[in-house]
Amino acid sequence: MHTLNIPKDCYDMFRMSRPLFDTLHNLLVSSYGLKSSSNMSSIEALGMFLWTIGAPQSFTQVKNRFERSKETISRKFNEVLDSIYLMSIDVVKPRDPEFTMVHPRLQGSRFAPYFNNCIGAIDGTHIPVVVPAAKLVQHVGRHGYSTQNVLAICDFDMRFTFVVAGWPGSVHDMRVFNDAIQKYADKFPFPSHGKFYLVDSGYPNRTGFLAPYKGTKYHLPEFRQGPRPSGKKEVFNYLHSSLRNVIERSFGVLKMKWRILLDLPSYPMLKQTRIIHACMTLHNFIRDSVMSDEDFDMCDQDENYMPIPSQGSGENSELGEEEGDMNIFRDNLANALYAMRE
């Protein structure tokens, strides 16, 4: 309670302001089953959970700081985790399921009206995890250590609207993507007619999913360190990358705030996956609150600010397939963007 009452300490230790902490606590208690017990209040349990995933802290460090037994710490951590995981159903989803609005980010002169039907970005990120020795090989991908490959969609408010976690790090993005749209067809926020997501070249260029041109420079640092984009493909890729980096920045804020995602402890694999979901839920909860937040404020003030470079899946050998109609759409868009620049 002493820490909660000191604004800077509250933010540093619990990764959110006191008013937001109280709002989150009240919501978890009223709607998602978080309860006090005879030996620990729900306020302390939530504070302990946020302190653990934000720093991050081991249960040994939590035991020393909160003066609780490891059994109590583990039980209360799981109770809060279950509540936030349940909350994810209501929080990690599009605000506008029909995608009727054009986001203000797209209304600037650089992008309008060509990207008016864009509704967000899709990408994968790698979260370091600890796995049993028998499953180590399948979890070691191109980064050289064991990870989960997490598929996520975000909107232009830096909110996650869909998440699939739990895939081994060696699995390609296309496989995760194809499984997601089949296995979670009832939950996947498919673009409505004429709308589309921005994806990188590891995903399909097909109706509803707009990929960049291959064989042409794409990533923003390539453009910033070299000459201005030239030719219709470079112009298109530059603007595509400028918009799609919203998901890389979202991953950056996520990992900067919830640093447990930089090195998940050796929890059971299902628990590791649920922690990833919980962190994304808290990310959205903070964003939805419209309260000032240091980490998000930095991104809002500078569209090029990258909190922590994302361990993205990046270019891989299993490139997304091409579809004729979407190639024509991309060419028409590229021609219009190039003509506008001349």
Ordered list of secondary-structure elements with their pairings:
Blueprint: H1 7-14, H2 18-31, H3 42-54, H4 59-66, H5 70-91, E1 118-128, H6 136-139, E2 147-154, E3 160-168, H7 173-183, E4 196-198, E5 209-210, H8 220-224, H9 231-257, H10 269-289, H11 294-301, H12 324-341
Helix pairs in contact: 2-3, 3-5, 5-10, 9-12
Can you summarize this structure?
The chain has helices spanning 7-14, 18-31, 42-54, 59-66, 70-91, 136-139, 173-183, 220-224, 231-257, 269-289, 294-301, 324-341, and strands at 118-128, 147-154, 160-168, 196-198, 209-210. It is α/β, with parallel strands linked by helices.
Helical percentage: 40-55%
Give the averaged pLDDT, no decimals.
91
**Rg over CA atoms:** 21 Å
Got a strand count? 5
SSE sequence, one letter per element: HHHHHEHEEHEEHHHHH
User: How many separate helices?
Assistant: 12
Sheet/helix structural class: alpha/beta
Strand order of the largest sheet: 3-2-1-4-5
Provide the low-confidence segments as ranges.
314-318
Whole-Å distance between the termini?
A: 61 Å
* Biggest pleated sheet: 5 strands, mixed
* Strand-residue proportion: 5-15%
Q: How many structurally independent domains?
A: 2
Gross morphology is globular
List keywords for this structure.
342 residues
Can you offer a commentary on this structure?
This protein is of the alpha/beta class and 342 residues long. Helix content is 46%, strand content 10%. Helix 3 (42-54) crosses helix 5 and helix 9 (231-257) packs across helix 12 (324-341). The protein is globular and about 70 Å long.
